[in-house]
């Protein structure tokens, strides 16, 4: 059996303070885990259908994004598998969720829908203009990165 590959996709706009949280986590992970076997850390920006190609070449998907999850700013939640699908279809609070659903629908139509998938959402404080995240979101970035890597490790064991 071949090893599973994982795409960790950070989405957001790093010119809008906390909206760039997913991008900041991806940059942190790429620096801290440059040789992670079978893992690709991709800056997905504000989403594009060209990202379907990356999903088609990976078995598993973890998306990291700023998302309104009903927590204090900097709070983190993980929606895995069907919980991710329900969150994305029933909660349109993040700027990118409609685009993310469209991207996943393309993958489903092309028979590349990842069976293992998760969304790690970070509650924003502000999405005003600014290149740095707010203090509570900046403090949450390392923990979000740890959760990504822990999820990959758990999936590898299962």
UniProtKB/TrEMBL annotation:
InterPro entries: Pept_HybD-like_dom_sf, Peptidase_A31. The keyword Protein transport does not apply. SUPFAM superfamilies: HybD-like. Keywords: Aspartyl protease, Hydrolase, Protease. CDD domains: H2MP_MemB-H2up (cd06062). One of its GO terms (biological process) is protein processing. The keyword Protein biosynthesis does not apply. Pfam families: HycI. Gene3D superfamilies: HybD-like. This is Peptidase M52. It comes from Candidatus Sedimenticola endophacoides.
């Amino acid at each position: 059996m071949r090893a599973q590959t994982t795409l960790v996709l950070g989405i957001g706009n790093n010119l809008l303070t906390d909206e760039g949280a997913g991008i900041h986590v991806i940059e942190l992970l790429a620096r801290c885990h440059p040789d992670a076997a079978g893992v690709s850390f991709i800056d997905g920006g504000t989403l594009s259908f060209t990202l379907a190609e990356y999903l088609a070449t990976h078995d598993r998907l973890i998306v990291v994004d700023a998302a309104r999850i009903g927590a204090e700013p900097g709070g983190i939640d993980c929606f895995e598998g069907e919980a991710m699908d329900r969150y994305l279809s029933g909660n349109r609070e993040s700027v990118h969720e409609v685009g993310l659903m469209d991207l996943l629908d393309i993958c489903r139509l092309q028979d590349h829908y990842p069976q293992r998938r998760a969304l790690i959402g970070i509650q924003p404080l502000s999405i005003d203009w600014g290149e740095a995240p707010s203090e509570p979101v900046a403090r949450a970035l390392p923990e979000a990165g740890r959760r990504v890597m822990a999820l990959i490790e758990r999936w590898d064991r299962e």
